[in-house]
Amino acid sequence: MAGELTGAPPAVHVTGLTVTDAGGRPLVRDLHLTVPAGGALGVVGESGSGKTTTALALLGHLNAGTRLAAGRVTVAGRPVLDAAAGADPRPLRGRVISYVPQNPGRSLNPSMRVRDLARSLLDPAGDGPATADELLESVRLPATRAFQRRYPHQLSGGQQQRLAIGMALAARPAVVVLDEPTTGLDVITAAGLLAQLRRLREERGTTLVHIGHDLAVVARLVDDVAVLKEGRLLESGPVAAVLGAPARPATRALVDAVLDPARPAAPRAKAAPATAPPLLQVNGLTAHHRSGRRERVVAAEGIDLTLAAGECLALVGESGSGKTTVLRALAGLHRPTAGAVTLEGVPLAAAARHRDPAQLRAIQLVFQNPAQALNPYQRVGDAVARPLRGPAGLPPRERARRVAALLDQVHLEPALATRLPGELSGGQQQRVALARALAAGPRVLLCDEITSALDVSVQAAVLALLDELRATTGVSLLFVTHDLGVVGRIADRVAVLERGLIVETGPTAAVLTAPRDDHTRRLLAAAPGLGDALAEAAARAEGSRA
């Protein structure tokens, strides 16, 4: 790779890596990569290109049902995978090479409190964080006693991600593999994390391998980039050159799919006239989280919102600003302490179990992580059919026809009805979750970061699908996201939250191009477009040569 230091042994060296599935189909094909000590490599590509398989191979790990067919991987000169001779990577994990997974909720021990998780990797004799407080503060998490008593499931997705990152960095490993590390983070927290990782490289000489789909984030962190397609290395080189002037059509397609928050698009679907009464109205909504026996943390306070028929309203803000709590309260999954919610002028009960069947069908929540929202042992067709069952549900034959129509509506082959969620890509799983929500015939879809884990091409397809659904069914969207590019692409209006309060609301183009509130301006400043990120990368490269 470009940037390799002459005479210095590479921190990561991959030669001829080929990984196949149980049927012998290559997932990674004859891959060659080199990362110099202290370097930073980005690995990008569409869903299914082999990015995560490559990341796991660097740790000497292969998923169940896959096998190493050929090749060798060394880290700091020591073999972690070797098709010819075998290797034992276990002594290297954590101390020489560490890993930050894409889904931290699955990697954090659910039975351990935050305090104990933070302490589990501390090395008092080393030069990393000496206490749990220091580790939490290093990734901008509160070091309060109340926070440290929480379990992982009591943290937001962004907080779980920051905790996983802090634990991976605690032992100061030589190489850190980051698999979509900013997926669950708001733009301000992500910018702070990237700055911290850059400092780690400068101060400690840590080598970074960043697996990512957010090309602007990749460009802000790495020196070089490798583009994968169907398990093959498509092109590689300095990040500003490869992403700034792609040589291959597939790379150009990835770059063209990137959304720029500075250039919001015109809404694709027409909302109801401004004079029409709101479909959903929220007045004075206040919600708390309980922490410990007595302490109550304000998650949202005095929230006022309206949503018109066919409209998309985006909720944005930092992690912990109350976005997801608002959605859960509207869905009846989190009881508010004050406020009122009406649907078509009819008050909604605070708890879902007290709402009538029509109200339950009218508001559907689509979760951030479809892999966790879908039962891994339930076939796709059964998951989509669930809202169609019950005493007043459809008979089996009609239900099967309806499932096939719903899958077709979200652009999935009806034959996928017999598959399990684990057999689908992330984008396909998210479409199944949408189909299941649509089966209920909703008036409002509550979308919680539903594009955050998708690569840019799949994200573009899902956003186009949502536009189509708005146009054909008239469904309204309340869309929580931290990606301001997505906001500019899909939302008619946007509301900005800070610490549980709405600090600004208005038409999307006005808020993104002429924000009135300082917090909104900070969010926009922390989310440069790909062009700005590539300019930063080119300047870094020029500075290193000088």
Automatic annotation (TrEMBL):
Family annotation (Gene3D superfamilies): P-loop containing nucleotide triphosphate hydrolases (3.40.50.300)
UniProt record, GO biological process: transmembrane transport
UniProt keyword annotations, A-Z: ATP-binding, Nucleotide-binding, Transport
Domain ABC transporter: 12-255, 280-524
GO function terms (MF aspect): ATP binding; ATP hydrolysis activity
Pfam families hit by this protein: ABC_tran (PF00005)
Similarity-based family: Belongs to the ABC transporter superfamily.
Name this polypeptide is given: ABC transporter ATP-binding protein
The species this protein was found in: Streptomyces radicis
